[in-house]
Amino acid sequence: MLWLLHGNLGSPADWKPVMEALRSGGMEARALNLWKYLECCPKSLKDMGRVLCSEIAAQDKHPHLCGYSLGGRLAMHAVLAHPPLWKGAVFVSSNPGLEGEAEKAARRAKDAEWAVKCLSSPWEDFLKEWDAQSVFDGGEKKTDRSSLKPWRKSISRAFIDWSVGAQENLAPLLKQSPVPHLWIAGERDAKFTALARREGGEQAVIIPHAGHRLPLEAPERLAECLQQFILQNP
Fold first, then answer.
1. What is the distance between the alpha carbons of residues 163 and 95, in angstroms, rounded to a whole number?
2. DSSP conformation letters of the chain
């Protein structure tokens, strides 16, 4: 089974087009709702990695894992928490971590601002400001996020607990990991294309004419990449 982890301000529904494309090729996948894990209490990135290992292992003895953006960073922590569990992992538009302490501190401060806006701003205004970030490059939004409003406390908490500023730079650990992995980015997404090429090397795929939000912008091409990876790492 392939397990899918959505990004920030995302939901399992974001993966629906990818899952449909995978199913047409005879592959099943399951998407998790990440917000439920922060519903009761704070949870660090490392703790969340261990939780994912435990929950998925209870249902699937030797799974594949794929995460997009925030979900990709959580997937990295899961892979490092218990390597023997995983057949392979795919990181889509994902950052393994920041290097300098000043950069991390600046990111934590910015994410703390997002956390406050998530709770206090009108929901549609908050989403509009989030979508206006340059990383999204004007990519078309094809999903209704009104269903996320009841999860805004968890989403706000994620900006703090799961900030990339709170994350160790995982790149050296991932390079030593025995788990096969693939890095994917969209060619319009210059930052994450560079990251994918740097971290993945030959194990990197750049999808043409796509930006940051690959599950929504290029679901069929992303599904093809996932199918090929799974077939290569059965």
1. 11
2. -EEEE--TT--GGGGHHHHHHHHHTT--EEEE-GGGGGSSS---HHHHHHHHHHHHHTT-SS-EEEEETHHHHHHHHHHHH-GGG-SEEEEES-------HHHHHHHHHHHHHHHHHHHHS-HHHHHHHHHTSGGGTTPPP-S--GGGGGGHHHHHHHHHHT-GGGS---HHHHHH-SS-EEEEEETT-HHHHHHHHHHHGGGEEEETT--S-HHHHSHHHHHHHHHHHHHH--
Task: Report phi then psi at 3, rounded to 5.
Answer: -105, 135
Q: Is the pLDDT of residue 140 over 60?
A: no
pLDDT tens digits for range 100-118 = 999 999 999 999 999 999 9
Q: 164-200: buried (b, 16+ CB within 10 Å) or exposed (e) per residue?
A: bbbbeebeeebeeeebbbbbbbbebbeebbebbeebb
pLDDT for the residue 138: 56
Tens of pLDDT along 193-215?
999 999 999 999 999 999 999 99
